[in-house]
Amino acid sequence: MIIDQVRANFIKEMMKKSKRPDNRSLLEYRPVKVEKNVLENPEGSAIAHIGSTKVLATVKFDLMAPFSDRPDEGVLMVGAEFPPLAHPDFESGPPNETSIELARVVDRGLRSAEAIDLKELGKVKDKDGKVLGVFLDIYVMDHNGDLTDASALACLAALSCAKVPKVDVENSKLLRNDFVGPLKLNRSVVTVTFNHIEGNFIVDATDEEEIASDGQLTFGVTDDGLLCAGQKSGSMGLTKEKMVELSRIAIEQSKALINSV
To answer: N or C: fewer beta carbons within 10 Å in the chain?
Structure first.
Protein backbone atom coordinates (compact mmCIF):
# COMPACT_ATOMS: atom_id res chain seq x y z
CA MET A 1 0.00 0.00 0.00
CA ILE A 2 1.22 3.51 -0.81
CA ILE A 3 0.40 4.85 2.64
CA ASP A 4 2.44 2.06 4.27
CA GLN A 5 5.40 2.91 2.06
CA VAL A 6 5.16 6.58 3.03
CA ARG A 7 5.10 5.65 6.71
CA ALA A 8 8.01 3.25 6.28
CA ASN A 9 10.09 5.92 4.56
CA PHE A 10 9.33 8.37 7.36
CA ILE A 11 10.43 5.80 9.98
CA LYS A 12 13.61 5.05 8.06
CA GLU A 13 14.54 8.73 7.81
CA MET A 14 14.12 9.08 11.58
CA MET A 15 16.12 5.92 12.22
CA LYS A 16 19.04 7.32 10.27
CA LYS A 17 19.25 9.79 13.15
CA SER A 18 18.59 7.01 15.73
CA LYS A 19 15.22 8.55 16.58
CA ARG A 20 11.73 7.07 16.93
CA PRO A 21 8.39 8.78 16.23
CA ASP A 22 7.18 8.40 19.84
CA ASN A 23 10.50 9.73 21.25
CA ARG A 24 11.41 6.47 22.95
CA SER A 25 15.02 5.38 23.05
CA LEU A 26 15.96 2.51 20.76
CA LEU A 27 15.89 -0.01 23.63
CA GLU A 28 12.85 1.32 25.50
CA TYR A 29 9.56 -0.53 25.83
CA ARG A 30 6.21 1.19 25.87
CA PRO A 31 4.31 0.97 29.18
CA VAL A 32 3.67 -2.66 30.15
CA LYS A 33 0.66 -3.85 32.15
CA VAL A 34 -0.71 -7.31 32.92
CA GLU A 35 -4.22 -8.22 34.10
CA LYS A 36 -4.83 -11.72 35.45
CA ASN A 37 -8.02 -13.76 35.84
CA VAL A 38 -9.93 -11.56 33.39
CA LEU A 39 -12.35 -14.33 32.37
CA GLU A 40 -14.46 -16.59 34.58
CA ASN A 41 -14.68 -19.83 32.61
CA PRO A 42 -11.08 -20.68 31.62
CA GLU A 43 -8.80 -22.28 34.20
CA GLY A 44 -6.45 -19.33 33.66
CA SER A 45 -6.59 -16.06 31.73
CA ALA A 46 -4.68 -12.81 31.34
CA ILE A 47 -4.40 -9.73 29.16
CA ALA A 48 -0.99 -8.24 28.42
CA HIS A 49 -0.76 -4.59 27.36
CA ILE A 50 2.40 -3.28 25.71
CA GLY A 51 1.56 0.26 24.78
CA SER A 52 -1.70 0.03 22.86
CA THR A 53 -1.09 -3.58 21.83
CA LYS A 54 -3.39 -5.94 23.74
CA VAL A 55 -3.29 -9.73 23.77
CA LEU A 56 -5.55 -12.13 25.66
CA ALA A 57 -4.30 -15.60 26.65
CA THR A 58 -6.48 -18.35 28.07
CA VAL A 59 -5.71 -21.72 29.65
CA LYS A 60 -8.04 -24.70 29.49
CA PHE A 61 -7.34 -28.27 30.57
CA ASP A 62 -8.72 -31.41 28.96
CA LEU A 63 -7.99 -35.11 28.84
CA MET A 64 -6.18 -36.38 25.77
CA ALA A 65 -3.92 -39.18 24.62
CA PRO A 66 -0.24 -38.50 25.40
CA PHE A 67 2.33 -38.27 22.65
CA SER A 68 3.67 -41.72 21.77
CA ASP A 69 7.27 -40.73 22.54
CA ARG A 70 6.27 -39.16 25.89
CA PRO A 71 3.65 -41.52 27.32
CA ASP A 72 4.12 -40.36 30.91
CA GLU A 73 3.86 -36.63 30.28
CA GLY A 74 0.99 -34.22 29.95
CA VAL A 75 0.47 -32.36 26.67
CA LEU A 76 0.91 -28.67 25.79
CA MET A 77 -0.92 -27.18 22.80
CA VAL A 78 -0.56 -23.50 21.78
CA GLY A 79 -2.73 -21.74 19.23
CA ALA A 80 -3.17 -18.13 18.08
CA GLU A 81 -6.05 -16.25 16.48
CA PHE A 82 -5.91 -12.91 14.64
CA PRO A 83 -9.52 -11.64 14.53
CA PRO A 84 -10.30 -8.89 11.99
CA LEU A 85 -11.29 -6.46 14.74
CA ALA A 86 -7.68 -6.36 15.97
CA HIS A 87 -6.09 -4.80 12.86
CA PRO A 88 -7.17 -3.68 9.36
CA ASP A 89 -4.88 -6.26 7.74
CA PHE A 90 -6.36 -9.23 9.63
CA GLU A 91 -8.91 -11.32 7.75
CA SER A 92 -11.48 -13.93 8.73
CA GLY A 93 -10.68 -17.57 8.10
CA PRO A 94 -8.40 -20.36 9.30
CA PRO A 95 -5.02 -19.61 10.94
CA ASN A 96 -2.51 -18.11 8.51
CA GLU A 97 1.28 -18.40 8.43
CA THR A 98 1.74 -15.40 10.73
CA SER A 99 -0.54 -16.69 13.48
CA ILE A 100 0.95 -20.19 13.22
CA GLU A 101 4.47 -18.78 13.53
CA LEU A 102 3.48 -16.69 16.56
CA ALA A 103 2.04 -19.76 18.31
CA ARG A 104 5.18 -21.75 17.51
CA VAL A 105 7.52 -19.10 18.91
CA VAL A 106 5.59 -18.96 22.19
CA ASP A 107 5.35 -22.76 22.29
CA ARG A 108 9.07 -23.15 21.63
CA GLY A 109 9.98 -20.82 24.47
CA LEU A 110 7.79 -22.66 26.98
CA ARG A 111 9.04 -26.09 25.90
CA SER A 112 12.72 -25.16 25.70
CA ALA A 113 12.57 -23.58 29.15
CA GLU A 114 10.65 -26.59 30.48
CA ALA A 115 8.40 -23.99 32.07
CA ILE A 116 5.44 -26.34 32.62
CA ASP A 117 5.93 -29.50 34.67
CA LEU A 118 4.43 -31.86 32.09
CA LYS A 119 5.66 -34.91 33.99
CA GLU A 120 3.56 -33.85 36.97
CA LEU A 121 0.51 -33.52 34.70
CA GLY A 122 1.17 -37.00 33.32
CA LYS A 123 0.98 -38.69 36.72
CA VAL A 124 -2.82 -38.71 36.67
CA LYS A 125 -4.36 -40.86 33.94
CA ASP A 126 -7.92 -41.90 33.32
CA LYS A 127 -8.94 -45.51 32.67
CA ASP A 128 -8.14 -45.09 28.95
CA GLY A 129 -4.62 -43.82 29.60
CA LYS A 130 -5.41 -40.20 28.78
CA VAL A 131 -3.44 -37.46 30.53
CA LEU A 132 -4.02 -33.80 31.24
CA GLY A 133 -3.54 -31.50 28.29
CA VAL A 134 -2.90 -27.77 28.62
CA PHE A 135 -4.54 -25.76 25.84
CA LEU A 136 -3.02 -22.29 25.67
CA ASP A 137 -4.87 -19.97 23.28
CA ILE A 138 -3.72 -16.53 22.17
CA TYR A 139 -6.26 -13.95 21.00
CA VAL A 140 -4.97 -10.69 19.57
CA MET A 141 -7.30 -7.93 20.74
CA ASP A 142 -5.49 -4.89 19.36
CA HIS A 143 -2.38 -5.09 17.19
CA ASN A 144 -0.15 -2.03 17.34
CA GLY A 145 3.18 -3.82 17.12
CA ASP A 146 5.29 -6.34 19.05
CA LEU A 147 2.72 -9.13 19.12
CA THR A 148 5.32 -11.76 19.99
CA ASP A 149 6.41 -10.16 23.26
CA ALA A 150 2.84 -9.28 24.23
CA SER A 151 1.66 -12.83 23.47
CA ALA A 152 4.46 -14.51 25.42
CA LEU A 153 3.79 -12.19 28.36
CA ALA A 154 0.04 -12.86 28.30
CA CYS A 155 0.68 -16.61 28.16
CA LEU A 156 3.05 -16.51 31.11
CA ALA A 157 0.53 -14.51 33.13
CA ALA A 158 -2.34 -16.87 32.25
CA LEU A 159 -0.28 -19.92 33.18
CA SER A 160 0.88 -18.33 36.43
CA CYS A 161 -2.71 -18.00 37.66
CA ALA A 162 -4.07 -21.24 36.15
CA LYS A 163 -5.73 -23.83 38.40
CA VAL A 164 -5.55 -27.57 37.68
CA PRO A 165 -8.94 -29.33 37.87
CA LYS A 166 -9.31 -32.73 39.49
CA VAL A 167 -9.76 -35.78 37.27
CA ASP A 168 -12.63 -38.21 37.68
CA VAL A 169 -10.59 -41.23 36.58
CA GLU A 170 -13.47 -43.71 36.37
CA ASN A 171 -15.73 -41.47 34.34
CA SER A 172 -12.91 -39.91 32.27
CA LYS A 173 -13.87 -36.31 32.89
CA LEU A 174 -12.59 -33.20 34.60
CA LEU A 175 -14.25 -31.78 37.69
CA ARG A 176 -14.03 -28.17 36.58
CA ASN A 177 -15.37 -26.79 39.85
CA ASP A 178 -12.92 -28.77 41.98
CA PHE A 179 -9.21 -28.01 41.74
CA VAL A 180 -6.06 -29.84 42.76
CA GLY A 181 -4.22 -26.53 43.07
CA PRO A 182 -2.29 -24.04 40.95
CA LEU A 183 -0.43 -25.13 37.84
CA LYS A 184 3.21 -25.74 38.73
CA LEU A 185 5.70 -23.70 36.71
CA ASN A 186 9.39 -24.61 36.79
CA ARG A 187 10.40 -21.30 35.21
CA SER A 188 8.96 -18.06 33.94
CA VAL A 189 9.74 -17.28 30.31
CA VAL A 190 9.13 -14.22 28.13
CA THR A 191 10.38 -13.05 24.74
CA VAL A 192 12.35 -9.95 23.80
CA THR A 193 12.06 -8.96 20.14
CA PHE A 194 14.41 -6.72 18.16
CA ASN A 195 13.66 -5.12 14.80
CA HIS A 196 16.38 -3.86 12.46
CA ILE A 197 15.87 -0.52 10.70
CA GLU A 198 18.58 1.49 8.92
CA GLY A 199 21.40 -0.09 10.91
CA ASN A 200 19.66 0.24 14.28
CA PHE A 201 18.19 -2.49 16.46
CA ILE A 202 15.11 -1.47 18.44
CA VAL A 203 12.89 -3.28 20.94
CA ASP A 204 9.10 -3.21 21.09
CA ALA A 205 8.54 -1.98 17.53
CA THR A 206 5.18 -0.44 16.69
CA ASP A 207 3.29 -1.81 13.70
CA GLU A 208 4.57 1.11 11.59
CA GLU A 209 8.15 0.41 12.66
CA GLU A 210 7.67 -3.26 11.79
CA ILE A 211 6.67 -2.26 8.25
CA ALA A 212 9.95 -0.33 7.93
CA SER A 213 12.02 -3.17 9.36
CA ASP A 214 14.14 -5.47 7.21
CA GLY A 215 14.49 -8.14 9.87
CA GLN A 216 13.34 -9.32 13.27
CA LEU A 217 15.08 -11.33 15.99
CA THR A 218 13.33 -12.81 19.02
CA PHE A 219 14.94 -14.35 22.10
CA GLY A 220 13.13 -16.49 24.66
CA VAL A 221 14.50 -15.65 28.12
CA THR A 222 13.78 -17.28 31.48
CA ASP A 223 13.67 -15.70 34.92
CA ASP A 224 17.02 -17.29 35.75
CA GLY A 225 18.71 -15.69 32.75
CA LEU A 226 18.63 -18.65 30.36
CA LEU A 227 18.38 -17.99 26.63
CA CYS A 228 16.07 -20.86 25.75
CA ALA A 229 14.84 -20.09 22.23
CA GLY A 230 15.37 -17.87 19.22
CA GLN A 231 13.65 -16.88 15.99
CA LYS A 232 15.01 -14.80 13.10
CA SER A 233 13.09 -13.53 10.10
CA GLY A 234 13.80 -11.09 7.31
CA SER A 235 16.86 -10.35 5.21
CA MET A 236 19.09 -8.68 7.80
CA GLY A 237 22.52 -10.14 8.48
CA LEU A 238 24.00 -10.65 11.95
CA THR A 239 27.57 -11.07 13.13
CA LYS A 240 28.41 -13.32 16.05
CA GLU A 241 29.43 -10.25 18.06
CA LYS A 242 26.08 -8.55 17.41
CA MET A 243 24.19 -11.71 18.40
CA VAL A 244 26.06 -11.83 21.70
CA GLU A 245 25.39 -8.14 22.31
CA LEU A 246 21.67 -8.48 21.58
CA SER A 247 21.36 -11.60 23.72
CA ARG A 248 22.81 -9.72 26.69
CA ILE A 249 20.38 -6.86 26.11
CA ALA A 250 17.51 -9.37 25.89
CA ILE A 251 18.41 -10.89 29.25
CA GLU A 252 18.44 -7.44 30.84
CA GLN A 253 15.19 -6.32 29.17
CA SER A 254 13.39 -9.53 30.15
CA LYS A 255 13.60 -8.74 33.86
CA ALA A 256 11.06 -5.92 33.72
CA LEU A 257 8.68 -8.03 31.61
CA ILE A 258 8.82 -10.94 34.04
CA ASN A 259 8.40 -8.63 37.02
CA SER A 260 5.20 -7.25 35.50
CA VAL A 261 3.44 -10.63 35.84
So the answer is: N
